[in-house]
Each structure stands twice: as C-alpha cells, then as structure tokens.
Amino acid sequence: MSHVIVADLGYGDSGKGTVVDWLCSPLGGGPDRFRTVVRFNGGAQAGHNVVTADGRHHTFAQFGSGSFTPGVRTHLSRFVLVDPLALAAEAAHLDSVGVPDALERLTVDRDALLATPYHQAANRVRELARGRDRHGSCGMGIGETVRYALDHADAPRVADCAAPRTLARSLRRLRDRLADELGPLGGPEVADLCGAYRAFAERVPLVDAGYLGRVLRAGPAVFEGAQGVLLDEWRGFHPYTTWSTTTFANAETLLAEAGQAAIRLGVVRCYLTRHGPGPFVTEDPTLEFPEPHNRHGTWQGAFRTGHPDAVALRYAVEVAGGVDAVALTHLDAAAQHPLRVCRAYQADGQRLSRIIPGPERDLGWQEELTTTLLSARPVYDDPGRDWPGIFEEVLSAPVVLRSYGPTVAGKRGQVSEKPTGRQAGLHGRGAGGRRPRTPRWRSSSTAPPGSGGAPGAADGRVGGTRGHLADQLPDPAHAVGGRLGVVAELLGHPGGAAAHAELLHGQADGLGHRVAGGRVRSLQPRREQRRATRVNHVQPGHSKTSAFPSPDPWGGPLIRWRSGTG
C-alpha cells in the first residue's frame, strides 16, 4: 500500500479529519491499513473533527486524526509548530473519550519550533490592533511563532525542552524581545514553562531527522495536512492566509528525504466554507447547512458558507501541483439543499474563468488577486445532481472516496495503489512555478457561455477552520485573572486542544487599549520583508545540550506527563 498525503483544496474545514480516520480504520484501510499519521504543517490551531460510530467526538489539533483506531501512531514533523501545553490538554480530552494512550503513541521531531503562551499573547495583540481589518487569526500564536523564528535564529525549538538552561535562555529572550516591541505581555513565568516543557520531554520521545525515514520504510503512512490550499502562506489570497505551507510540498519534502513517494489525495466539500474574513466569491448567507462542530469564533470570525467554486478549486489544484485523487465530503448535506456551480466570475466588466498563479513568493501579486476577488461576482450554472461527476470534471481527477456522513460507516470508496488522476503539466513545479509578469485578469469571448474550460482555455482568466475550541472555554480574565492555575481546571475540559490559549486573553484585551493609543510598534504583517525564507527552511541557530531533569513546579495536576494520565 502506498503512502497518502491528505490536503484540503479549499479554505479548510473540508473534512480532512474524517478522511484520515477512515483511512486508518479497518473499514477504510483493510488489514494493511495505515498505522502512522504524520502531521506536516500548522499546529494547535488545527481542528479536525472525528465522530465514532458510538457517538464519541474529538477535534484533533496536533494528534493525528486516526487516533481513535488502536495502535495508530502520530508523528509531529519538523514543519509543525508544537505546543506542549495544548498537547497535554488534547491528550486529556482523548483520554476522556476512550483513548488513554495518545501520548504513548506520539513522537516529535526535535527540530520543530516551539509555540508558547508568549507567542499567543503577541498574536492576539497584533490582531486586536488591526481593528476592523483583522485577518481572522485563530489566536493560537502560530503566525507569531513563524514570524519570530524568521527574525531570530535562536527561537525556541522542541529539542530545547530537554535542555533546561538553553530553554530558559531562549524563553527569556523571546519574552523580552516581544515585550520590547509590544509592551509587557504578562503570562506564565519562564521557570514555570521550563518545568512543564521538561516534563513533556521526559514523557514524549523527541526524535532526530532519521526517525521518520525508518517509519516510512517500515510501512504505509498518512500525511495529514492542516488548513487548506486557498489559505497557503504564498498561494493564498494575502493577507487572509495562514503562516504555513498548506499544499503537498512539506509532505513531499519529507518523503523525498526518505526516498519515498505518495498518492496526493485532495479533500473538498460539495460546497465551500470559509472561517473568518477574506475573499469568498460564492458566499451565500441563505444556505443553511448543519454545522454541529463549526461556528462563529471570537478570533477567526464568522463561519461562512457558499456554492461550489470551480474557478477557485482549479486554482488550488494548479498551485498545489495537481492531485491524483479526490475525497468528496458532505454529500449527505448537498443532497438536501439547492446548490449551483460557479464556472466563472464577473469582475471589472469582464467574464473571468481562471485565476493565474503569479511568481512564487510574490505576496504583492497575491494581494492584488485579493483586491479583485473581493469585488468579483459569481457566474453560476445549474449542474444537476451528479456531484462526484461534477467534481471529477472540475478537478480533472477521480473521486475515490465519497462521504455521506461523519463516521467511517458513511464512507464509500477505495484509495488506488497507483496515482491515476494527476494532470500532465501540473505536477512538480509546473503550473505553480515562476511565470512572467502578465495581467492577473484577462478576458476573451471565444469560450461559450457557462463553459468552465480546462486550465489554458481561452475564456477569461484571473491572472486562511471553525468556531475554535478556545472560544468554548471560560474567559480566564474573569475566572482567575489569567493565572496559570486555570490550566489545571481546563485540562479535563472538553475544550481540549485550545484550552491553554485563553490564559492570556485578558492580557491581550488590555493591550488592545494600548494599541489603540499608538504605543505598540510594528503591528502590521511584515512578510514582504521577513519571509524571504519559509519556516521549513529556518535552521536551528545553536546546538542543544542535555541537562539533568528539573522538577515539575506545578506538582502534577497541571500537566500529568509523568503519571501517564495525560
């Protein structure tokens, strides 16, 4: 059986978690099912919902979404922004729903960046400062972790958790540098964080770069992506994007290092959704789909719904380098609602049917696309009801998995042993590579009305997950004044992965007033200047040394790494 990379072709929330759950289950993978899930981007802000046949539910953030199947392991690669406190909270919730050994099945790459409460506070301050121009951040510090690492080679990494002195120095520098820029951020003491992170390092194996290669050569693995291609750091519609690579690229880098290859499985709903602000040409507020696990988020903003957008989805496939196969989800919901397919846009008096990828890492190009998309209007046709056939035509790839419900029993299909659907000219760097400076929008009257056209057709061309779990938790600013002790109360709370994020809500809100008064510097994104190198190319700035274990200053009930109770 081949390795499989699971990536969302939309704005996220398409059902990656339920697809990975199916792949790792006996019904989906059979006797040779996948036994390892590799996370290859994002961090604790991810939210992949999985529901079991007996009604248990978990929103997977850092653990792999196959964890309900006994024996399935999770590996956090170097491309993940690792948050040990969120891992503890998520493990506690998994324990409460019948997965007591999640931590025993976890390994973490030592070179992964460490996401801390200081990053979260700075993230929230910057987002508050944008006012009505907020980008829709999850408020978990993911972008801030990347931003800091691009500016500072000595950014905290997972390996530091096993070296208390090195960790303490890097955390103090982080806290002080952010305070110099943004003002005092409050939050936990460095010594307290060091104790928790040291306990994490004692409980969870921190592995070297060669570990994953050995795992991949031993058997098939699922690579589980986070967010969606239309939110990609370089190919999404800037500035309403995430700070990580959401295409297949990171996974294929890891596979190539091990001399392996994989099937590219793109996941898409029968309709589109988007969480928070940003372009969404086919948004339709009159569509009312049941969303038991997605809602308005304090930080992300509204959960939005719209019709299928063939223009945007073809763009996603193109910049991702093509797909071999498609997993089509939410077919049960689509059968109960009237949906249309957008085959083109109307913008600036022109009919446009293709978004032209710009030069690589050109955020100016992406921002101009955003400006035009915000004013574009959809041109619809009535496609009929054969949704698998429609999406096969739009994406030029076979639909190999059809999902009619949230559980494994609602899935129909099989992932092929060999890639069959990737478009010629779209794999590798082909269509997503560097292009000459051409207009982002071009028009022509040669294509018939309603024709979507394959990439390259002569028709007109166009030349950032849910109501986050953090929003379900009590505000610590009112509960305990933002003190660390609130984490002990939240570890068993069904909020799970994002519990600790609310620790600094009160501090961030307070800093918002200072932002409005003009006292906070450099609040706007600096990706144009700072992101000449992606986070996956940021190298550790210094060697890590081992040190003797330090006692857990929180005495066990806060994070029970040593006791084995999650």
Explain the overall architecture.
The chain has 566 residues and is α/β, with parallel strands linked by helices. It folds into two domains: 3-34 and 228-462, Adenylosuccinate Synthetase, subunit A, domain 3 (Adenylosuccinate Synthetase, Chain A, domain 3, Alpha-Beta Complex); 117-207 and 473-531, no CATH class. It contains 17 helices and 19 strands. A ten-stranded mixed β-sheet has the order 7-6-5-2-8-1-9-12-16-17. A three-stranded antiparallel β-sheet has the order 14-13-15, covered by helices on one side. Strands 3-4 form a two-stranded antiparallel ribbon. Mean pLDDT is 76; it is low at 423-566.
Q: Low-confidence stretches at least 5 residues in length (pLDDT < 50)?
A: 423-566
Strand content: 5-15%
Walk across the major sheet and give the strand order: 7-6-5-2-8-1-9-12-16-17
Which structural class best describes the helix and strand composition? alpha/beta
CATH architecture of the largest domain: Alpha-Beta Complex
The major beta sheet can be summarized as: 10 strands, mixed
Number of helices: 17
Looking at this protein, list some descriptive labels.
29% helix, 10-stranded mixed beta sheet, disordered C terminus, Adenylosuccinate Synthetase, Chain A, domain 3, alpha/beta, 566 residues, 2 domains, 3-stranded antiparallel beta sheet, single chain, 19 strands
Give a quick summary of the entry.
This protein has 566 residues and is of the alpha/beta class. 29% of the residues lie in helices and 14% in strands.
Please specify the SSE layout and strand pairing.
Blueprint: E1 3-8, H1 16-24, H2 26-29, E2 36-39, E3 48-51, E4 57-60, E5 73-76, H3 84-96, E6 106-109, H4 117-129, H5 142-151, H6 164-182, H7 190-203, E7 206-207, H8 210-218, E8 222-224, H9 249-257, E9 262-269, E10 272-275, E11 303-306, H10 310-320, E12 325-329, H11 331-334, E13 341-347, E14 350-352, H12 363-375, E15 377-381, H13 387-395, E16 399-403, E17 411-413, E18 441-442, E19 461-462, H14 476-479, H15 485-490, H16 505-516, H17 527-530
